[in-house]
Specification:
Blueprint lengths: L7 H16 L10 H11 L11 H6 L19 H4 L4 H8 L9 E10 L8 E4 L6 E7 L5 E8 L8 E3 L1 H6 L8 E7 L2
Parallel strand pairs: 1-5, 2-4
Antiparallel strand pairs: 1-6, 2-5, 3-4, 3-6
Protein name: D-galactarate dehydratase
Organism: Sulfitobacter donghicola DSW-25 = KCTC 12864 = JCM 14565
Keywords: Signal
């Protein structure tokens, strides 16, 4: 039996492209075809009525939690989800814990997320919904499971797609090869 070993960068590319292939299009990482962006923009505009929308001032007032992104990088030989996820049990418990009652979450929007680089440790979401790094929470709309994350800004329209870390994907029980609809709130 011949074994094929892919470098981590190749593994990341394969996982990202597999999600795009399921949609029938393959584009550069931050590019979304105009027709899809317009369609997504229409879907993003309808926030749930029970959460107030966050303002730029709200985002600036909330600082990212360094504990959520402080995991060490995975070893070069890592090839499984377990080996690539270097977060500690304590970090997973912290990310899974519901927001404190005194923290009022505010809605940043919804986004469609794919798996981000599995070699970047910690709980994070790279998204165009924020303009500065801040603390937030993502909720898998399919099953209601959520995770505290560090929200990291990327260029693109608010209706553009996002990339979610491997540990966060595992915690919210999202498929690593499918696109996942997430509700993104401020303040974790």
């Amino acid at each position: 039996m011949t074994r094929i070993f892919l470098p981590l960068s190749a593994l990341s590319a394969v996982l990202s492209l597999s999600a795009c292939a399921q949609l029938g299009w393959v584009q550069p990482e931050d590019s979304v075809p105009p027709a899809i962006a317009e369609e997504a923009a229409e879907e993003v505009v309808t926030p749930p009525s029970d959460l107030p929308e966050a303002t730029a001032a709200d985002v600036a007032a909330v600082k990212a939690d360094p504990v959520l992104t402080s995991a060490p990088p995975p070893p070069k030989a890592a090839k499984t989800q377990e080996a690539l996820d270097t977060t500690t049990t304590e970090q997973r418990k912290q990310a899974a814990a519901p927001a404190a009652p005194e923290v009022t979450s505010k809605l940043l929007g919804t986004t469609i997320a794919s798996l981000g680089s599995p070699t970047e440790p910690g709980f994070w979401l790279k998204t165009p919904l924020v303009k500065s790094e801040t603390a937030g929470r993502v909720t898998n709309k399919a099953n209601g499971k959520s995770s505290a994350v560090t929200l990291i800004p990327i260029d693109g329209p608010a209706s553009g797609g996002s990339r979610l870390s491997l540990p966060a994907m595992r915690l919210i029980e999202a498929s690593l090869t499918d696109l996942t609809e997430l509700e993104v709130t401020l303040g974790g």
